[in-house]
Structure formats: structure tokens, C-alpha cells
Specification:
Largest sheet: none
Radius of gyration: 10 Å
Shape: elongated
Order of helices and strands: H
Structural class: mainly alpha
Number of strands: 0
Helix content: over 70%
Distance between the termini: 30 Å
Low-confidence stretches: none
Number of helices: 1
Length: about 25
């Protein structure tokens, strides 16, 4: 499901921000 994939991707991005800090 495309929407589920988007939500999962957003979750991964949020977890990455928590673990590695904001990018940029």
C-alpha cells in the first residue's frame, strides 16, 4: 500500500533524526 509506505518512510526519517540529529 502506497500510503503505508509513505508513513513507514516518515517514521524512518523521524527515527533517523532522533538517532543522528537533524540533517543539513
Amino acid at each position: 500500500d502506497f500510503e503505508a509506505a509513505i508513513e513507514e518512510g516518515a517514521t524512518i526519517v523521524r527515527l533517523g533524526t532522533v538517532l543522528f540529529g537533524p540533517r543539513g
